[in-house]
Amino acid sequence: MTATKRERITGLGYDPNFGGIDLSGCPSAQDWPKDASFIDDRFAPMDTTGSGHGSAGLKKFIAEQAAEGEGASVVHVGESEFRIFYRDGVWNADGEANGKRHRYTASDKDTLMGKLVVLAKQTAIHDLTRGEQLQVIRLCQNGQKHEAIGYYLNLALGQGRYADDANVITNPELLPLMNEIAEFTWFHSTPQAQNTDEWHAYKEEFLHGRPVTHDLLDAAFEAFQDHQKQNRYTLLSSQVEEPKPVDPRAVAASLEEMTDAQVDAAYKGVARELAQSYGRR
User: Fold this and answer.
1) Concatenated DSSP letters of 56-104
2) Rounded distance, CA 105 to CA 26, Å?
3) Prediction pTM value
4) How far apart are CA 153 and CA 156, in angstroms?
């Protein structure tokens, strides 16, 4: 029989011929069982591959809790406000732009903001360059004021948006643009129009907040011209000296001091002046 090889471990109180030290009361000093596992299946499985798939659910849960904790916020798309909030696992955006209600959803906030950026580009109003303004002015000078209005709108809003939106003229958010177009095309279609501070002040008072049209501007300018004429008449009237009343006694005294020849000359002079004045009528 082959003898069992034993190794002697030198240590106080240890004798291999006896049963060894009892470690049952010290679990920390015992070896782990070979079939034992510290992973609890009731929790998320540990990712041992380094791919991150095992913790994806936990990450998603944490992100959702953080999103819900942020609450609703407001972002501006041009002149419009959109409410941003997280609900039922998706991001939401809700607001109005150019008189229409818009609702967007996305799985993450970045994608949602991207959709709002696209909307902002669609609703933006283009400021005409000087060259584009000159093209509109030429149409006005050629008597094509209606074509000029349409061309200005097309440049400012874009071909697709202007063609598709039948309510552009009645959209309250576009009223400032429509007023600007009406004034620009009217001014360059009206050679006698004046670009003065007095005209603009009178025009604003005449319009009194009403949507601007060419007919209203025609009426305002006609009233403005009458107003100017009245002001000039009043100014001239105030500068003319009132004739002084004639004292008959002073006239009689001056006649008594005149010779017969002087009186005759004065009489003829008055008669000649009267005849000329009647001839000019």
Assistant:
1) HHHHHHHHHHHHHHH--EEEEETTEEEEEEEETTEEEEEEEETTEEEEE
2) 59
3) 0.47
4) 5
DSSP 12-35: TT--TTTT----TT-GGGSPPPTT
Q: What is the DSSP string of 212-277?
A: P-HHHHHHHHHHHHHHHHHHHHHHHHHHSPPPPPP-HHHHHHHHHHS-HHHHHHHHHHHHHHHHHH
The CA R_g of the chain, rounded to the nearest whole Å, is 49
- DSSP, collapsed to helix, strand or coil, labels residue 105 as strand
Please give the Cα distance from 61 to 53 (Å, whole number). 14
Structure tokens belonging to residue 26: 């010290």
DSSP code at position 172: G
3-state secondary structure of 206: helix
C-alpha–C-alpha distance, residues 185 and 180, integer Å: 9
Burial (CB count within 10 angstroms: exposed 0-12, middle 13-18, buried 19+), residue 273 = exposed
Task: Specify whether the CB–CB gap between 20 and 26 falls below 8 A.
Answer: no
Residue type at 99 in one-letter notation: G
> One digit per residue, pLDDT tens: the chain, 281 residues?
444 444 444 444 455 555 556 666 666 666 666 665 555 565 555 555 555 555 665 555 555 555 555 567 888 776 678 888 888 888 998 988 766 787 888 888 888 888 777 666 656 788 899 999 999 999 999 999 999 999 999 899 876 666 555 567 777 878 899 999 999 999 999 999 989 999 999 999 999 999 999 999 999 999 999 998 888 767 666 655 555 665 666 666 666 677 777 777 776 776 676 666 655 55
